[in-house]
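Board notes, transcribed. Complex of a protein with FE2/S2 (inorganic) cluster.
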Amino acid sequence: MEILDKSILAETEGTRVVKIEVNQPLIASKAEAGQFVVLMAKAEGERIPLTVVDKDVAKGSITLIFQELGLTTKFLGKLKKGDSLYSIAGPLGHPTEIKKYGNVILVGGGVGIAEIYPVAKALKEAGNCVIAIIGARTKELLILENELKNISDELHITTDDGSYSRKGFVTDILKESLTCNLKLKTYNLIYAVGPIPMMRMVSSIGFEHKIKTVVSLNALMVDGTGMCGSCRVTVGGKIKFSCVDGPEFEGALIDWDEFEKRSRIYADKEKHICKLRGLN
Ligand code: FES
């Protein structure tokens, strides 16, 4: 599992967004939009889920994008072209339901932009009118602008600090698009990936406007096969496992309070270990 290529997509004080292309012909031949892999950077490391952002079947490679935030992603970010990953399992999870919806809105926040990209591409290829709304904390952290511009009918950009394009949040644009354009256009799907508060807000806006809203959850995972329970999420009052039942769920049905709490479960321990290993 050699890293064939590596590039830094975004960098700001304290964090980077990194793209790696990995030699993985079997996964490349099978992966569909919305699916992910579970990766181990080294034998004694943890497993982390990463969306398959792109694939090259002829070359036998997949593209993964991650932000250096936790212990494993910081270690992964230190690997170079030519280095090998310990293991990758996948493709996992259900693929996105790709069909002709009509007008679809994709909302991506931060590194979530990487996760909406393959879905936007597949929805465009299926004949949909794709409106993409992407946002980042600041200009330096905005990724895949040109890639999304090439496949979207409309692309809207926000930055929290106003350093690029419009100052504000992706949800501001979503609300405006629905309020101003709803009489002109019918939207049949909203698809969102990003920080939990963003996905929660997008789900609530979609619900208010009676538009099907799907989010792809970045749950904590261990085995990725439905056995450990760490990616548990409550959806419509039922227990689901993000790795085998998801990662996509209807946003309005998710118990967001529980999901948010579970996603922070190891945050303090991880910070402590990062500090111990000098991976700040
Ligand atoms: S990662 Fe273990 S059940 Fe989903």
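The chain has two domains: 3-92, 103-263. The chain has nine helices and 16 strands.
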